[in-house]
Amino acid sequence: MSTYQYKGFDGRGGACKGIVEADSIKNARAKLSAEGILAERLVLTGRSTKFPASLRAVVYRELAALLDAGLTLVRAMDLLIDAPEMSDSRLLMAGARDRVKDGMSLADSLRNASGSVSTFECAILETAEESATVAPMLGRLADFLEEQEDLRGRIQSALIYPSIVVGVGICVAVVMLGLLVPKTRDLLVRSNVVLPGLTKFMMGLGQFLVSWGLLVLIAAIAGCAWAVFRCRRDSSFRETMDRRSFSLPLFGRGYAMLASLRFCRTLSVLLKGGVALIDGLVLAGRATGSPWVARIAAEEAETVRHGGRLSDAVARIPPLAESLPGWIRIGEASGGLAKLLDSAGQRYQARWDRFITRCLSFLEPILIIAIGGFVLLVTLSVLLPVLQLSQAVGS
């Protein structure tokens, strides 16, 4: 049995769409016809790239609950397909369900269903299926994805206010330099008033933005697009840019903190799921989001394979070497590495929250002062010659 997606018309002539299970397209059309549906388009469900982490967390948690209740995996996936929250991912789950029916593992079926399913998720699911601990590991995986989504949401929320302030500042600059200053310049030129240096500078800046501002903006966008394109195509360039990011004054510190947090959380979940330490080190390095860290972690995994200690391997990964090796040494000595990694993750989470709070506490007034200072300069550049003009008229 396969799952087909259809679009067509019901018995009343209204448009409808959905999915239907059948052995072939012919049987699918016959089945729909028996229900009074004329299928205009009928295709086999295939691979999809859209499977967000928040929805994957819901799927994993509900699958865990259904499996704990004694349902088979196929039956549990059948119920998930009809769940309201699945919406656009219903076809994806139907395709994964069909692959499970054909004998494929859950990990492979989800990997083939969407490229959004990460490597470490598949590793955890494969280990869970081998050890018959699918339900509890699905719950832990859901917890991990929810934590990552919460972290991503905090980062996005932290950037909302600065983005609004910068946007307002750009609008103010365009209005004042593009409209106010040119009108004032025309008035002062007709009055033969000697312009102060500040006024000349702001007028020159306004003329530059009017003449070249659009070209500068296009060049900046083109430069960013070129950098993104090269990062996607050239792994060495991407790694070089990533390595340099860690050396930036303030951003680098926060980036290293975020990489350590992701590394701890991921490796802890992998070890609890039964993934081998060597494979877990490689996958945790990828989960940091840093190509540089991922490459070094893969190289250090070989040293661990040949008898090296994990703490020494992590100490040779520069962004993670500040305090994480100490936590790992304690975990290795006590035999509770996963638990110590959890504790380290909580500590890095607290440090990350404090870092974001402090950065915003400084960033917000700095942006306000910068915009206020710019408005003051524009206002003075207009008022100073006007005052000179009024004094000349009065005398």
Sum this structure up briefly:
The protein is mainly alpha-helical and 395 residues long.
Highlighted features:
6% strand; 3 strands; 3-stranded antiparallel β-sheet; 395 residues; mainly alpha; 15 helices; 2 domains
Could you explain how this protein is built, in words?
There is one protein chain. With 395 residues, the chain is mainly α. The chain has two domains: 43 residues; 240 residues, no CATH class. The protein has 15 helices and three strands. It has a three-stranded antiparallel β-sheet with strand order 2-1-3. Strand 1 and strand 2 form a beta hairpin. Helix 4 packs across helix 5. The longest helix is centred in the C-terminal third of the chain and has 58 residues. The chain is flat. The mean pLDDT is 79.
How do the strands and helices of this protein lay out in sequence?
Layout: E1 2-9, E2 15-22, H1 25-34, E3 38-44, H2 53-68, H3 73-81, H4 90-101, H5 106-113, H6 119-131, H7 134-190, H8 197-233, H9 235-245, H10 251-272, H11 277-287, H12 291-305, H13 310-315, H14 324-334, H15 337-394
Antiparallel strand pairs: 1-2, 1-3
Helix pairs in contact: 2-3, 2-7, 3-4, 4-5, 5-6, 6-7, 7-8, 7-10, 7-15, 8-9, 8-15, 10-11, 10-15, 11-12, 14-15
Alpha carbon gap, first and last residue? 97 Å
Structural class: mainly alpha
The percent of residues in helical segments reads over 70%
The coarse overall form would be flat
* Strand residue percentage: 5-15%
The tally of strands reads 3
Radius of gyration: 30 Å
Q: What is the number of helical segments per DSSP (H or I, 4+ residues)?
A: 15
Q: pLDDT under 50 segments (min length 5)?
A: none
In order across it, which strands form the biggest sheet? 2-1-3
User: Would you list the SSEs in sequence order as H and E?
Assistant: EEHEHHHHHHHHHHHHHH
What count of structural domains?
2
The major sheet is characterized as: 3 strands, antiparallel
Mean of pLDDT: 79
